[in-house]
Amino acid sequence: MSRRSRLWIRSGILVVLVAGSAFALRQFSKTRGVPDLPTARARQGTFQVLVPCRGELTAARSIQLTAPLDIPDLQIVWLAPAGGPVKEGMPVIRFDPSKLKQDLKEKSAAFRQAQATLDQEIAQARITADQDKLDLETARYQVERARLEASKQAIVSAMDGQKSAIDLSLAEEKVNVQQATAQLHQSSDDAKTASLWRLRDEAKAEVDRTERRLHSMEIKSPLNGVVNYLPNTSQGWMNAQPFKVGDHASAGLAIAEIPDLSTLEMESKVDEVDRGRIAIGDQVLVHVDAFPEKVLKAKLESISPLTEQSFSEWPPTRSFKAYARLEDPDPRMRPGMNAGADFVQASIPNAISVPSKALFTLRGQPVVYLKSGKQYAATQVHIRARNTDEVAVDGIAAGSAVALVEPEAPKR
After folding, report:
1. What residues pair up with 287 in beta bridges, in sequence order?
2. In this predicted structure, which of 159-168, 251-260, 317-326, 332-341 has the lowest mean pLDDT?
3. What are the tens digits of pLDDT across the range 291-327?
4. CA 88 from centroid of its chain's CA atoms
5. Residue after which a domain boundary falls, among 215, 231, 246
6. Which residues contact 41 (CB under 8 A, 6 or more apart)?
7. Residue 74 lies in a domain
């Protein structure tokens, strides 16, 4: 075969291959259409218009635990685990009781001594009173006897009659003396007894005071909650650390705080532009960052009347504080946890909604791209309401597949 013939054959084979490749590519393009895009289904149901905010959980009620007021210097020897749950009546803080125990022994001994002295004085006063009573009765007997003798003046000599009269007078004077002596003894014994009663009561009061102080060495939880220890500023604010075992506490110093977990509420920062969109009584949906699977219902109870400026961001921002009480708080939740709050501004029943990513703009109009087979058709919609992640629209049917990415325009 000549060289020219072989060249023509090769050229023919090349033309056939190029033509076949072009035909196959064309057929593949027809069957493939627009590349497959991520889609979502339009949902029909109640659409809640939300005002999103951020904040943290707080407790509407909490109680501080303080050191006893009448004890100047105390040392902490035991603390319940920080952040751990406590029940009402459980011990939370214990102070060193050794000095008070020694004081109680000494004051108890002083009280027993005072009681013994008082008992001895009461017994001695009773003996003295009994003796005075006996002496008085004896003196009265002598009076009666002398009176009997004096009554014989008519039958005895004048001298004996005068002697009997003198004896009667002396006997009566002795009764008066004995009565005065008995009164003196009683007054003296009453004064001594009253003084000893006072000393005994003072000793008893010291024992009771020491026992109360000793009892206050252990502080118990007044409610169910979790314990948070406050900063110890005895070394200055720059070196403040939560109280720990071994620290000293002055009288009345706040050491710990126990929030009531049943009063958890959502404290939200509401931007000035959103303040007019919320009102007292609105429903709030709370999303705690630590528990993303849970959506807690709450009710807006109060809004701060004035804005608060925050310097944690730059430029500084101003916002209102809004407080919503949680209806059914999770027992695992704690004050200080970061959370998001969606204030329900309004509810649209039977609304058609699509993800925010599915909404696009075409020639200045809002559109979604409906999937039909392997093609995507731009469909103009009317926006009824808009949230961060979802948009309520009119113009498409429920269940329609909408593209989440805008299809590329076909090349010409």
Report:
1. 340
2. 159-168
3. 999 999 999 999 999 988 776 666 777 899 999 999 9
4. 12
5. 215
6. 399, 400, 401, 402
7. yes
Sign of the torsion formed by the C-alpha atoms of 144, 150, 152 and 156: positive
Give the chain's mean pLDDT: 86
Whole-angstrom distance, CA of residue 330 vs CA of residue 384: 35
Torsions phi, psi for 13 (to 5 deg): -60, -40
Domain co-membership, 156 together with 113 = yes
Tens-place pLDDT, residues 230-266 = 999 887 878 889 999 999 999 899 999 999 888 999 9
Rounded distance between C-alpha atoms, residue 66 and residue 219, angstroms:
8
CATH number of the domain residue 380 falls in: 2.40.30.170
Residues 319 and 198 in one domain: no
- Do you know the residue count of the chain? 412
- DSSP annotation of 328 reads S
Residue with tokens 């005065």: 180
Same domain, 228 and 357: no
Can you tell me the distance from the alpha carbon of 213 to that of 207, in angstroms, rounded to the nearest whole number? 10
Tell whether 170 is covered by a domain: yes
Instruction: Give the chain's domain count.
Output: 4
Judging by DSSP bridges, how do beta strands 375-380 and 231-232 pair with one another? unpaired
Q: Would you state the structure tokens that stand for residue 176, as one six-digit string? A: 């008066």
**Which residue range is the domain that position 106 belongs to?**
99-215
Structure tokens at 360: 């696009």
List Cα–Cα distances, 320 to 7, 275, 324, in angstroms. Answer: 87, 7, 13
Q: Give a yes or no: residue 290 inside a domain.
A: yes
- CA–CA separation, 346 vs 51, rounded Å? 10
* Cα 70 from chain centre: 25
Report which residue type is found at 349.
P
Which residues, other chains included, contact 360 with Cβ-Cβ below 8 Å and sequence gap of 6+? 366, 367, 368, 369, 378, 406
Residues 265 and 244 in one domain: no
Half-sphere exposure of 190 (CA within 13 A, CB side): 6
Q: Do both 89 and 237 map to the same domain?
A: yes
Q: Output helix, strand, coil percentages for the chain, rounded to the nearest 5.
A: 40, 35, 30
Is 411 within a domain? no
**CB 65 within 8 Å of CB 255:** yes
Same domain, 78 and 179: no
Percent of the chain with pLDDT over 90: 58
